[in-house]
């Protein structure tokens, strides 16, 4: 039975991926920080899904997470590094605290979770990191968040090359606008959502499940010859001049 660890897996894309993989026969572990989201995940996800409170900024938490997953599952076949935060602000208003927090979660946390999980990754396994189209297309007020996500994209080819001898595939998924709780959390008004949809050729946002399907594909044997690639899931956003 294949195994998967999903960071940031209690809401949105991460949770949809957890539900999809579990339905396809995976043993699944998810992480989160928010007490309410953790509680809902514990209550609503299948009983055999492992839900772990873990702070990506804290390497001791990461060590404990990997130890817990190793004890429960033994090894991993799919590592989906999906945890991330966004603290929107114009450049002039970005504080050092906000800058450091976003770097710590979105880049440092992902990097060291990957590093510490490698010893329990099966050869031939798959690593998928969430980047997002903002790293390529730009998002006003998100200079720090997009820079940290862009750092993941920049290291993708090197990671893919380094892990190729173990046949571990490394890819990224870049969702466009997606219907997740983040939109409500950020307070995006209906007018703002309508404006975003107007720039998407498909005329709608993605669902979390549609992004989850791409992650599941990248983790499957169907993608066993795919590595070092960024898969954009954005309904054609950015294709027009």
Using brief descriptors, characterize the structure shown.
single chain; 9 helices; 7-stranded parallel β-sheet; 241 residues; alpha/beta; Rossmann fold; 9 strands
How would you characterize the overall build of this protein?
α1 (12-23) crosses α9, α3 packs parallel to α4 and α4 runs parallel beside α6. By secondary structure, this protein is an alpha/beta fold. The protein is built from 9 helices and 9 strands. The chain has helices at 12-23, 35-44, 59-73, 96-117, 134-137, 143-163, 181-185, 190-198, 208-219, and strands at residues 3-7, 27-32, 50-53, 76-81, 121-130, 169-175, 178-179, 206-207, 230-233. The protein has one domain (3-233): NAD(P)-binding Rossmann-like Domain (Rossmann fold). The strands form 2 sheets. The protein has a 7-stranded parallel sheet with strand order 3-2-1-4-5-6-9, sandwiched between helices. Strands 7-8 form a two-stranded parallel sheet. The longest helix has 22 residues, at 96-117. It is globular and about 45 Å long. The model has no long low-confidence stretch (mean pLDDT 92).
């Amino acid at each position: 039975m294949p195994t998967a660890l999903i960071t940031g897996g209690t809401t949105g894309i991460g949770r949809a991926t957890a539900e999809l993989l579990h339905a396809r026969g995976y043993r699944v572990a998810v992480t989160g920080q928010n007490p309410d989201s953790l509680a809902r995940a514990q209550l609503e996800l299948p009983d055999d899904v492992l839900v772990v409170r873990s702070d990506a900024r804290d390497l001791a938490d990461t060590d404990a997470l990997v130890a817990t997953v190793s004890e429960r599952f033994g090894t991993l076949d799919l590592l989906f590094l999906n945890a991330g935060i966004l603290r929107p602000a114009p450049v002039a208003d970005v504080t050092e605290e906000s800058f450091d927090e976003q770097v710590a979660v979105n880049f440092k946390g992902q990097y060291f979770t990957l590093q510490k999980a490698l010893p329990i990754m099966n050869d031939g396994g798959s690593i998928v990191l969430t980047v997002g189209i903002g790293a390529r297309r730009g998002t006003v007020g998100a200079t720090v968040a997009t820079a940290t996500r862009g750092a993941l994209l920049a290291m993708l080819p090197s990671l893919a090359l380094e892990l190729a001898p173990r046949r571990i595939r490394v890819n990224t998924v870049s969702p466009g606008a997606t219907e997740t709780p983040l939109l409500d959390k950020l307070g995006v008004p209906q007018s703002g959502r309508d404006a975003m949809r107007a720039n998407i050729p498909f005329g709608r946002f993605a669902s979390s499940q549609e992004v989850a399907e791409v992650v599941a594909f990248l983790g499957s044997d169907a993608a066993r010859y795919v590595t070092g690639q960024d898969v954009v899931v954005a309904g054609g956003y950015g294709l027009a001049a």
